[in-house]
Automatic annotation (TrEMBL):
Transmembrane segments: 20-37, 57-79, 112-134, 140-161, 173-196, 260-280
Gene source species: Halalkalicoccus tibetensis
Listed GO CC annotations: plasma membrane
PANTHER family: ABC TRANSPORTER PERMEASE, ABC TRANSPORTER PERMEASE PROTEIN NOSY-RELATED
Keywords carried by this UniProt record: Membrane, Transmembrane, Transmembrane helix
Signal sequence segment: none
Protein name: ABC transporter permease
Length: 285
């Protein structure tokens, strides 16, 4: 119950943040814009209204971009901020353990991210219905739940990094440095390794299993894989693009399979959180 009490207090404090309100409004705008763009693309391709799955695919990009930013902004200062202000010693002076603090922060900050996602996707649902006149509630609900899962993953990463460090500055550098690694450097590293091992970034015999596996590892591609598995749309997985064009040396490796996206998301959530908790348990405040 201590973790729940901390979560409630943390949720109440974080949800009033002006920065969160601004990010949520931006998320709403991007979601509505994504629904509109998806409708227009469907019209150009000959489907006048477009179905819900097409529009969900259009909404995946703004969701996979903004949800990690919101979650990391909410999560990176969760523990480090308390240490900097000195309030963490007071909090631990109450009948709370360090595990209670970390888990409570995860639950509270996840709740804040969930509110932001639900507001954004509620606006998106209204926009889809306005643009198309219909919506598949099941597909949209699945999309919403998996996006909440993505938010939870990044909250765990942010809180885990926050528990590892003594200052919010270090936690922020770690959190957004990791985001830069995922978004900007991961594919560059993969191509560099491919060039070093095969002598080309466009191998004639096809891309090796390890290359597609490496590209599928970050949370973003894992989110796409999980969406593909849940919605029956394998094209959302990274490996599907290579497979459809006959660019794989063999079949799709296990880690790059759509259903394995759930395993990767679980690993990205709990491994950084476990490391942060172990580190937090051993440091002097």
């Amino acid at each position: 119950m201590s973790a729940i009490a901390i979560a409630k207090k943390d949720f109440q404090d974080a949800v009033r943040s002006r920065g969160l309100i601004a990010l949520t409004l931006i998320f709403v705008l991007f979601t509505v814009a994504g629904a509109y763009v998806g409708t227009q693309i469907s019209g150009v391709l000959g489907d006048e209204a477009g179905d819900t799955l097409d529009l969900v695919i259009a909404l995946q990009s703004p969701a996979s971009f903004l949800v990690p930013i919101i979650a990391l902004l909410i999560g990176y200062g969760a523990v480090a901020g308390e240490r900097e202000s000195g309030s963490l010693k007071f909090l631990l002076g109450l009948p709370h353990t360090r595990q209670d603090v970390v888990l409570g922060k995860v639950l509270g900050r996840t709740g804040v991210v969930v509110v932001s996602i639900l507001i954004g996707f509620a606006a998106g649902m209204v926009a889809i219905f306005a643009f198309t006149g219909s919506i598949s509630p099941v597909e949209y609900l699945v999309f919403t739940l998996l996006t909440v899962l993505l938010g939870f993953v990044y909250v765990c990463i942010g809180v885990g990094l926050s528990a590892m460090t003594k200052s919010t500055t270090r936690a922020a550098v770690g959190a957004f440095g990791l985001l830069g690694l995922f978004w900007l450097l991961w594919s560059v590293i993969a191509q560099l390794l491919l060039y070093l091992t095969s002598g080309s970034v466009f191998p004639e015999s096809g891309y090796p299993d390890w290359y597609v596996t490496f590209l599928s590892l970050p949370p973003g591609p894992a989110y796409g894989s999980a969406l593909g598995a849940a919605l029956g749309e394998s094209g959302l997985a990274v490996a599907s693009t290579y497979e459809a064009q006959g660019l794989l040396e063999g079949g799709v490796p296990l880690v790059a399979q759509p259903s394995f996206g759930f395993v990767l998301l679980a690993a990205w959530a709990f491994v950084p959180l476990a490391i942060g908790l172990l580190r937090f348990d051993r440091v002097d405040l």
